[in-house]
Recover the amino acids of this structure.
């Protein structure tokens, strides 16, 4: 807010009734300055506003230096074309960054679903392992039960057999009065034999012995699981990118994967370029079959796109876009919903071999020269460095 001063000695003018106390908003100042010549002076570390004759306003902001606007503008050297170019450049960068972040949101959701599936798969593996342990233990339990029950059933069968024999002998004893002495002796001897057989069997199988099944649980499994805080670590890939750029990389292992497809023109293939995108995608170029191939996390070909010429090199442009050189053109390819999609294409009057993207600029080699292009395909500079076959990139 501005408060009008009623008197200003520095102007050497008498007190004017027009300088009445009033409030002037910043909006009023801007609106009035569009229709009047507004000048600013410094007075006692405050800004003094003069517009129409007899009107003075005081700005409630302290300042150390104030210049006349028209004088400041005259001293400025403005290249409007460069200014417009700078504005367009920053707008393009903002749009590019916005598009990248929007694509990143979608990819984060895809990553979430993928990692959720990984966690569920791990749980299934653990369940399968625990089921296998349980089944093995249950088989042991079933085996012991079968052994014990078989032994007990055998004892029951033996008891039933002995009981039947003893009952038969007992019935024979009850009718001894009607038998001869010879028959009585035979029956008595047989009766004593069965009694002795039963007594011997009972001595071998004491009644007081009971079958028992004891389960000694593996405490190590429960102890190990109870000591774990989670099924694994969840790491933010953005944090993992914050590393020392001078860190020495070491090779941990070397693995071979076949990227040949049934639709390939030739039985063989040759990888001429490879590009790893920030979100885990890997794109390779097959110079024999004129294809760009998208690999999944297991390095299996999940998608591809045909190219009109032999692809020599590949580089990353955006988080989901690459550029591929071939013959005398540069083909842009993007990843959309897990599929490779051909985009715009630039034609050049020279061979295109190596390619690199750096700070918004595109660098292409022809074998004998290095060309600097914009992303619109406009030539910026040509550097001749001699014969550089097969390719040279920045």
């Amino acid at each position: 807010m501005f408060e009008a001063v009623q008197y200003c000695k520095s102007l050497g003018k008498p007190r004017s009734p027009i300088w009445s106390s009033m409030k002037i908003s910043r909006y009023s100042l801007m609106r009035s300055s569009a229709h009047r010549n507004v000048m600013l002076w410094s007075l006692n570390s405050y800004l003094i506003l003069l517009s129409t004759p007899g009107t003075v306003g005081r700005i409630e902001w302290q300042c150390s230096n104030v210049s006349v606007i028209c004088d400041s503008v005259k001293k400025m050297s403005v290249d409007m074309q460069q200014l417009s170019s700078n504005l367009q450049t920053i707008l393009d960068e903002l749009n590019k960054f916005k598009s990248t972040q929007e694509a990143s949101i979608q990819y984060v959701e895809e990553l979430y679903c993928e990692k959720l599936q990984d966690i569920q798969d791990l749980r299934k593996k653990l369940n399968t392992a625990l089921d296998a342990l349980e089944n093995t233990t249950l088989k042991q339990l079933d085996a012991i039960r079968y052994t014990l029950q078989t032994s007990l059933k055998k004892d029951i069968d033996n008891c039933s057999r002995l009981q039947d024999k003893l009952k038969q002998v007992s019935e024979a004893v009850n009718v001894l009065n009607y038998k001869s002495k010879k028959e009585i002796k035979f029956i008595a001897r047989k009766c004593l034999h069965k009694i002795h057989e039963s007594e011997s069997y009972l001595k071998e199988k004491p009644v007081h012995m009971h079958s028992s099944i004891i389960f000694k649980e593996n405490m190590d499994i429960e102890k190990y699981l109870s000591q774990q805080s989670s099924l694994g670590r969840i790491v933010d890939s953005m944090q993992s990118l914050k590393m020392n750029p001078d860190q020495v990389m070491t090779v941990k292992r070397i693995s071979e994967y076949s990227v040949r497809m049934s639709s390939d023109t030739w039985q063989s293939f040759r990888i001429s370029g490879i590009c790893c995108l920030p979100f885990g995608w890997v794109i390779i170029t097959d110079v024999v079959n004129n294809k760009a191939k998208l690999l999944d996390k297991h390095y299996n070909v999940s998608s591809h796109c045909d190219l009109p010429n032999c692809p020599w090199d590949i580089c990353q442009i955006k988080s989901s876009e690459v550029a591929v050189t071939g013959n005398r053109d540069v083909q842009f390819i993007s990843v959309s919903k897990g599929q490779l999609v051909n985009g715009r294409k630039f034609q050049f009057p020279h061979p295109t071999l190596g390619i690199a993207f750096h700070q918004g600029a595109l660098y292409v080699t022809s074998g004998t020269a290095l060309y600097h292009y914009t992303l619109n395909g406009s030539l910026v500079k040509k550097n001749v460095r001699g014969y550089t076959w097969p390719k040279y990139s920045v």
Notes: Residues 80-174 form the longest helix (95 residues). The chain has three domains: 2-75, 83-204, 271-384. Confidence is low (pLDDT under 50) at residues 1-11, 15-61.
